[in-house]
Design goal:
With 129 residues, this protein is an alpha+beta fold. Helices cover 37% and strands 27% of the residues. The protein is built from three helices and seven strands. It has helices at 6-24, 30-44, 89-102, and strands spanning 48-53, 56-58, 61-63, 68-73, 77-82, 106-111, 121-125. The strands form two sheets. The protein has a five-stranded mixed sheet. It has a two-stranded antiparallel sheet with strand order 2-3. Strand 4 (68-73) and strand 5 (77-82) form a beta hairpin. The longest helix is centred in the first third of the chain and has 19 residues, at 6-24. The two termini are 28 Å apart.
Length: 129
Amino acid sequence: MFHLNENELSKIVIGLAIEVHNTLGPGLLERTYLECLYYKLKKYGFRVEKEKPIPVYFEDVELECGYRIDLLVENKLVIELKSVEEISDIHLAQTLTYLRLGNFKLGLLMNFNVVLLKNGIRRVVNGLE
């Protein structure tokens, strides 16, 4: 059981993601990076949920609309993985939507299709009301 805040957790997760990227390199399918990072996080001892469904509430009714978080670490850090030419505003909006719907504070949007993974990582913060 880890008692880390979101920032501490994100540093470890980024380190593990860099290990995955250094081993595999860019150019593979998003699914490959997701499975490898999931494996590394579990091996480290983190509680990780893969493709976690996030419902939408509308007029007090829970609706399953097909939203899924790629990885949720320790029930507090959202990880959205991509393998694209470049991160776009829609990717940022998607990650922020997951943060808001799940009431999470921090997300990492990671694009593995870059030469250096550190250049493909964006921190996304939910300004909780």
